[in-house]
Amino acid sequence: TGILQILQTRTSRRFLQSRLTPEMERKLVFLTSNVKFGLQKRYQDWFTKQYLSTTESQALRYDVIRFIVGVIHPTNELLCSDIIPRWAVIGWLLTSCTSPVVLANCKLALFYDWLCYDPEKDNIMNIEPAILLMSNSIPKHASITAGLLDFLCR
């Protein structure tokens, strides 16, 4: 019937997967399920060099964030392990943006599920990365939290 109906329709996980190549998916799943937190720099540098180094590829960042938020849902065992959490990968993607427009779109990709969240239909894992990114960034990277809160308020 209109925009409200579109906003109330959950994005299919298949659609989020179709925005990335299978190789990118595999590498993101590897990063978020096998790489220990604190040892991720070389993997992130490699991923950036391989997929995100050109000006045109900057737009892939928000597709990667939507994929991480909407498709990669780690098990409880993985959440309790020392593997790099989803929020840290998203924080890296946000802080390495070079364009203000891309950064705004990345923030929207992160918060999209917040804006359309329905507890009856949606998964808490879709809003968890944004919450954890903001709360875990406060001690050492308060500007990230401030930027995200500013985006939400505006």
UniProtKB/TrEMBL annotation:
Integrator complex subunit 3 N-terminal domain residues: 1-154
Query: Can you tell which superkingdom this protein's organism belongs to?
Result: Eukaryota
GO CC terms, sorted = cytoplasm
Instruction: Identify the InterPro entries for this entry.
Output: INTS3, INTS3_N
Function, as annotated, reads: Component of the integrator complex, a multiprotein complex that terminates RNA polymerase II (Pol II) transcription in the promoter-proximal region of genes. The integrator complex provides a quality checkpoint during transcription elongation by driving premature transcription termination of transcripts that are unfavorably configured for transcriptional elongation: the complex terminates transcription by (1) catalyzing dephosphorylation of the C-terminal domain (CTD) of Pol II subunit Polr2A/Rbp1 and Spt5, and (2) degrading the exiting nascent RNA transcript via endonuclease activity.
Q: What is this protein called?
A: SOSS complex subunit A homolog
